[in-house]
Predict the structure of GumN family protein.
Amino acid sequence: MSLTSYSISLTARWLLGLSLLAGVSAQAADRPLLWQLQAPGGKVSYLFGTVHTDDARVNDFAPAVLTALGEVDVFMMETLPPKDQGVYLNPDQQLQELLTASELEQVRALAEVHAIGNMAMQMKPWLLAVVFDLPRPQGPYTQDIQLYAKARDLGRDVKGLETAEEHFGLLDSLSQQEQLGMLRAVLKRSQRDKERDYEMLVKAYLKGDPARIADIDTRMTGNLLPPALWAKLRVKLLDDRNDLMAPRIDAEAREKSVFVAVGAAHLAGKRGLLAQLQQAGYKLKRLK
């Protein structure tokens, strides 16, 4: 499972109606992906790179992260939970009409593992592919959801960088056959392969190197798609979304102090959020 693909579907966690509790670990505190942003007008905000997972190793936030969250007026994450749960569902056909008996058996088994149950038969194939490419869940509480809960407990205003339609729209644009191809590719992957790739990504995150994270992330996401399709979608999934999110962060952070939680794959690169905010006149300082 990669940061790019799962960032598009992080709100699937809301679908399951999960409680907002925190895991415990000491590993995530070593080198958090946390930057202080000073706007041209002097307002101080924060940008935190997340990994959309329930892994306890990343869910014990560094003191600097919690301190920063306590200092701001506004919390922004990639998207807020959609009001219409139809964004998760396939409006055309259910999976029983699209997959073989053997494939359906695999889907039902994985749906139980990931606590989706019978709803899996109505969900979009690309979304199932993204969820099923994770190893067995350790807990349902992603970093983003935990931070959202903490921000609300603190009485902070909460906002999405994207609407639900924007967030889901890119992969919704895939044809049904392309989505089924993604799902079938995941169904062919062994549990061992999923866990190996997942471990590689989590370890890169814990080391706190955004460029390395982005490299691993794009390679892993590309493995779920045919090369030509991945080449077409990569720019839309990362660069185009960065071009959308950076001005929205800028507009908010010039007026108020903001804590932005966004997938770590969006930070690095010439069109990454760090570069775009620096070009917009922000002074960036990485915090420990």
Q: What stands out?
A: Residues 3-87+139-176+192-286 form one domain. Strands lie at 34-38, 44-50, 74-79, 157-162, 258-263, 283-286. The chain has one domain: 3-87+139-176+192-286.
